[in-house]
Design brief:
The protein has about 1100 residues and is α/β, with parallel strands linked by helices. Among the domains are: about 55 residues, Transcription Factor, Ets-1 (DNA polymerase, domain 1), CATH 1.10.150; about 180 residues, 2-Layer Sandwich (Alpha-Beta Plaits); about 200 residues, P-loop containing nucleotide triphosphate hydrolases (Rossmann fold, 3-Layer(aba) Sandwich), CATH 3.40.50; about 60 residues; about 90 residues, Arc Repressor Mutant, subunit A, CATH 1.10.10; about 60 residues; about 90 residues, Serine Threonine Protein Phosphatase 5, Tetratricopeptide repeat (Alpha Horseshoe). About 60% of the residues lie in helices and about 10% in strands. It contains 49 helices and 18 strands. Strands 1, 2, 3, 4, 5, 6, 7 and 8 form an 8-stranded mixed β-sheet that branches. The protein is elongated, with a radius of gyration of 40 Å. One of its GO terms (cellular component) is cytoplasm. This is Adenylate cyclase.
Length: about 1100
């Protein structure tokens, strides 16, 4: 059919260009609604002509449903209706076949007319049955509501039909909502019933069998989408053929009496208003002015779900305690051409009309309502009653005037009502969703806006961005555009929905990222997560029951999101391809993937931007496009069949590799994602490995763990071969590094990675390049767990393997393991011997080994450990210089784990040097880095800061005890734990709590023997001796014994500084006891040994004591 010729035949040839420009084809005609034609710019008269002509097109024998070419199959939420003509079998036995055919034809026309009126799609006529879809081929934001409205209208329309023998007809309707695959599934000429796959159509058909004649029954998912828009009765659960479990059904009684759509859809589920304090303050100021007689109009603009109606409801609640009249008017998408619908709907609700009211009762209620505003409503009653379709009889005869005069009188009557109400009390008015108001109502509100400037009235008008208000720029009109919520505000909303119980951080982050500050999205996605079974309540919080899967779009948002895409059916494929690429996509990559003519592609992308589904930066070919909402992107992606998604991912991976090698090199995780989803699993493993290594290099630990774990998961699906095992070894070795940095040396994850790698090496003979890092990873875990005998054996093996290989870089890392092992053992000279060999081997390129072995640079580690060791050996000045060199080198490398290694050991040194100010500087730097992406260091930084703060006073020491004790309980690193016990015990001494310190020291001293970690052994005994002197028992013998043991250990370790400390403490005890010469003889030779650091506190204290003893 030629569209231009068809329009010409209707006398509407001038619109042919408009139809052609908007690609209105014969196939599109049956799907056009009044709203569509209005959007095309057609006035009401031509719209009526076109719609009537479209309906006539179907009467040349009702066209087979779906006879137009069908869109490509896709996944989507669909509301399915099944209508059955009751008693048709019996009728066919009583009626002549020709009469029965006419009955069926009339019935089908009646049903199809109501389905089409609600913009549904008649999928198939099956004699006495009709199958219809709501949500395909084009979705609306309210498909369930449309289906129910159509169902109620069908029941009423069929009830008015009769057979030639005047027997009444009746229909029953079943409606269900669910995920289906819909479209052209098996090619041209396929049977229509194959157009939908899923249980939803079958459920709709089964539900109609539960319905009584003239009634509508819906499934539970449909009922959830309806909110309180309709009165529904729970029919309980029913066993239905084809369904494994009983199905809950609901009977639709009729429309509810809810005041507006917002209240009906949200009802009692309203959440706290969040993030709108500023807007509420503006509206309350408008109300203050209005009460003073300076009427105000507040315009609230914002996208769907942004919270316009929620603000209006909150404002109404705030004013509930004040003396005022509240009037609410609500637009409806089904009545955009019903004259004065919002006004008449408000009058019906305000008057309290009931379904069973007689005309006389309704007139009486109307009279009572109108009399509240004007003394004599006699002239207004017939005008308003006529619009409400209430017969008034002779008592209130309708005026015999022309239509225009009648309209003017109606306006006068309505405005007089407003004047009368405002004369008695201030008036608060809301006109919600004014973008759905009919033209006559808009004309009335033009006059209302003019009139209230001199009345005590506040009028709040809400609308979507596409509506252009005609009242801006006037002194009593305020325009407020609602923006999205910030993350903190969205978090408050999530917490409220979760009942104050925190959600797991990753779940909350996912919700925030997906919803992007749109309150409705935040609410619905949070509720969906809470109802999904993914979480369990544990005390005061929620925990995940397993891994967090991708969150599905809530059913309450499916229709709304799909509707946005379906408005652009000709270009939806471009949106879908863009969605497969990601939330953000470049013009070049899209063009290479879509393989579309450039002019057509640019036009499609311009339409995507014009429809506000995407934003654009720059211009093609350099343009970058971003979906406005993450959930819109998800909806476009999920609408694709899985097979089509896989094809597109595969194509994108190929295009990236072949056409954009630079991007593939810079962002291997992008290529890995598309290869994974495209089924290119072998390639995907390689790209995930590469992505993990790159993330390791940037110290992006969480990302590295995610990439490498994904690679391992995919690798497990490939056939077992020696080559696959070698790839797994490489992945496990790479995974150990970020696990170590993120979760600590002792973590089970670190041990699991290296144990698995080592086992695979042994299975295949173990190449040195793989065996060495596997053994070194195991050494790391055993050392951190305090299993020093095993750790020392592994360190020796590493040296043997490295020397055998002749690889100098491996030998460096073997010495790296050795100096760290000897450090834990308190063998300070051996530490320096191995660091010296390490420095001789180190080259700048060895920095890269940080990403294979310990996670930090070996030169930084050697320098920092040598610094502490030099102090222990009695060289405090050289020790300080080495510590500063370590920090400088680490910062030059700009490698966070290496910086933390240097800072932490520098802190240890400053503590030994009693330099609190320098120690504080290191802690502050550590804390900043820890909070910027190394959370495992946060407890250490907090503990160390608590120690430094505790040195200030006895009161601060008491406060510090609690913080340090809590951190100690959580710390399992044997190397650090002994040091922290020393700090805690020292603070206990300052706080006058010697017993608490001794209670912590006792198990720490016992643990030395169990683990062999002896680096803090001397200090543990020395501090124990100090605390015993300050304890209630004042046990001098025990104190002396601890000091003697401290000196013994220090001399075994050649730790001159520890020897000096312990000797000073013991000399002080002996002097106190009267053995001054013995004390002098003990301390003098130890002090005399030192050649540097004479200004450090330990040497100053020793000299002062010696001077007293002379």
């Amino acid at each position: 059919m030629d569209i231009a010729a068809w329009l010409s035949g209707l006398g509407l040839a001038k619109y042919a260009t408009t139809f052609a420009k908007n690609e209105i084809t014969p196939e599109v005609l049956p799907h056009l609604s009044d709203a569509d034609l209005k959007a095309l710019g057609l006035p009401m008269g031509p719209r009526k002509l076109v719609l009537a002509a479209i309906s006539e097109l179907g009467k040349s024998d009702m066209p087979a449903a779906g006879s137009t070419p069908r869109p490509e199959a896709e996944r989507r939420q669909l509301t399915v209706m099944f209508v059955d003509l009751v008693g048709s079998t019996a009728l066919s036995g009583r009626l002549d076949p020709e009469e029965m055919a006419e009955v069926i034809r009339t019935y089908q026309h009646a049903v199809a007319a109501e389905i089409t009126r609600m913009d549904g799609h008649v999928a198939k006529f099956m004699g006495d049955g009709v199958l219809a879809y709501f949500g395909w081929p084009r979705a609306h934001e309210d498909e369930a509501e449309r289906a129910v409205r159509a169902g109620l209208a069908i029941a009423a329309a069929v009830a008015k039909l009769a057979t030639p023998a005047n027997e009444a007809l009746g229909a029953r309707v079943g409606i269900a909502t669910g995920l289906v695959v819909v479209g052209d599934l098996v090619g041209e000429g396929a049977a229509q019933e194959a157009a939908v796959v899923g249980e939803t159509p079958n459920l709709a058909a089964r539900l109609q069998s539960l319905a009584e004649v003239g009634s509508v029954v819906v499934a539970a998912p449909t009922r959830r989408l309806l909110g309180e828009l309709f009165e529904l009765v729970d029919l309980g659960h029913h066993d239905l053929k084809g369904f494994a479990t009983p199905v809950q059904a609901w009977l639709v009684v009729g429309e509810s009496q809810a005041e507006g759509r917002f209240e009906a859809l949200h009802g009692m589920r309203l959440t706290s208003l969040v993030g709108r304090d500023q807007e509420l303050a503006v509206l309350l100021e408008c109300w203050r002015r209005a009460k003073a007689g300076r009427g105000q109009v507040a315009l609230l603009s914002g996208e769907p779900g942004i919270g316009k109606s929620r603000i209006a409801v909150t404002l109404r609640e705030r004013l509930r305690g004040e003396e005022c009249v509240s009037l609410g008017y609500h637009g409806s998408p089904y009545h955009t051409n019903s004259a004065l619908f919002p006004v008449l709907d408000q009058l019906r609700r305000a008057a309290g009309f009931e379904h069973e009211d007689t005309p006389e009762m309704k007139v009486a209620k109307l009279q009572t309502l109108l009399a509240l505003a004007v003394p004599d409503p006699t002239s207004a009653i017939p005008l308003i009653a006529e619009h409400l379709a209430i017969p008034t009889g002779d008592r209130y005869p309708a005026p015999e005037v022309a239509p225009e005069q009648k309209k003017a009188k109606m306006f006068q009557a309505l405005l007089a009502q407003l004047d009368g109400l405002a004369a008695k009390q201030p008036v608060f008015m809301t006109a919600e969703d004014i973008h759905w108001f009919d033209p006559t109502s808009l004309e009335l509100f033009d006059r209302v806006v003019d009139r209230i400037e001199r009345l005590p009235v506040l009028l709040v008008i809400t609308f979507r961005p596409e509506f252009v208000p005609r009242w801006t720029g006037r002194p009593h009109v305020t325009l407020l555009t609602l923006n999205r919520l910030g993350w903190s505000e969205s978090t408050v909303l999530i917490d409220h929905l979760a009942g104050g119980r925190p959600l797991p951080a990753e779940v909350q982050a996912h919700i925030l990222a997906k919803t992007e500050g749109v309150p409705l999205f935040v609410e619905e996605l949070t509720k969906a997560v809470l109802e999904s079974g993914l979480l369990r309540e544990t005390g005061e919080r929620y925990e995940l029951t397993g891994l967090l899967p991708p969150l599905a779009i809530p059913s309450t948002l499916q229709d709304s999101l799909l509707a946005r895409l379906d408005r652009l059916t000709p270009i939806k494929e471009i949106a879908q391809i863009g969605a497969v690429i990601g939330r953000e996509f470049s013009y070049e990559l899209l063009a290479a993937t879509a393989q579309m003519d450039e002019p057509k592609l640019r036009t499609a992308l311009n339409e995507l931007i014009h429809a506000e589904l995407a934003f654009c930066r720059d211009t093609p070919p350099d343009a970058i496009y971003t979906f406005k909402h993450a959930l819109v992107r998800d909806a476009a992606y999920e609408s694709l069949l899985k097979s089509r998604r896989q094809q597109l991912h595969c194509r994108i991976a190929t295009v990236l590799r072949e056409r954009f090698p630079d991007r593939a090199e810079a962002e291997p995780e992008v290529l890995a994602h598309h290869a994974t989803e495209g089924g290119l699993l072998d390639d995907a493993v390689s790209y995930w490995h590469k992505a993990g290594l790159r993330a390791n290099y940037r110290s992006a630990n969480a990302e590295a763990i995610a990439h490498l774990s994904r690679g391992l998961d995919l690798l497990a699906t490939l056939p077992e071969t020696p080559a696959r095992d070698n790839r797994e070894i490489d992945l496990q070795l790479a995974l150990g590094i970020p696990q170590l940095a993120a979760k600590g040396h002792r973590s089970a994850e670190v041990m699991a990675a290296y144990t698995r790698a080592h086992a695979l090496c042994n299975r295949h003979g173990g190449e040195t390049s793989r065996l060495f890092p596997a053994l070194r990873g195991l050494w790391t875990g055993y050392r951190a767990r305090g299993q020093m005998r095993t750790a020392r054996d592994l360190a020796d093996q590493l040296v043997t393997i490295a020397r055998r290989s002749g690889d100098q870089s491996l030998l460096l890392e073997a010495h790296h393991a050795q100096w760290t092992t000897h450090y834990c053992l308190g063998e300070w000279r051996s530490v320096c011997e191995h660091t010296a060999q390490g420095f001789a081997l180190y080259r700048p390129e060895h920095f890269s080994h940080a990403f294979i072995y310990s996670g930090h640079d070996s030169a930084v580690c050697a320098t920092a450990h040598e610094g502490v060791s030099l102090w222990m050996l009695g060289f405090p000045d050289r020790a300080l210089a080495r510590a500063e060199e370590a920090v400088t080198l680490a910062r030059k490398l700009a490698h966070a784990p290496s910086v933390m290694q240097a800072l932490s050991l520098a802190f240890v040194l400053h503590c030994f040097r009693n330099d609190a100010a320098a120690a504080r500087e290191e802690i502050e730097a550590m804390s900043q880095i820890a909070h910027d992406g190394m959370p495992r260091w946060i407890p250490d930084a907090n503990l160390q800061m608590a120690y430094i703060t505790a040195l200030g006073s006895e009161q601060q020491a008491r406060a510090g005890m609690t913080t340090i004790q809590e951190a100690l309980a959580a710390d399992e690193d044997v190397e650090a734990k002994g040091f922290y016990v020393c700090l805690f015990a020292s603070v206990c001494g300052l706080a006058g709590e010697a017993e608490a310190g001794l209670n912590a020291l006792k198990p720490a001293i016992e643990e030395v023997a169990a683990t062999g970690v002896r680096l803090w052994e001397s200090e543990l005994h020395r501090i124990a001796g100090n605390l015993l002197l300050g304890s209630a028992t004042l046990d001098l013998e025990q104190s002396e014994a601890h000091y003697l043991r401290a000196i013994e250990v220090a001399r075994e370790q050649h730790a001159a500084s520890l020897d000096l400390r312990a000797s000073t403490s013991l000399a002080r005890l002996w002097a106190h006891r009267g053995d001054r010469q013995k004390a002098y003889d003990l301390l003098a030779p130890v002090y005399a040994w030192f050649t540097e650091g004479c200004d450090t506190r330990d040497l100053v204290d020793a000299k002062e004591l010696l001077d007293q003893l002379r």
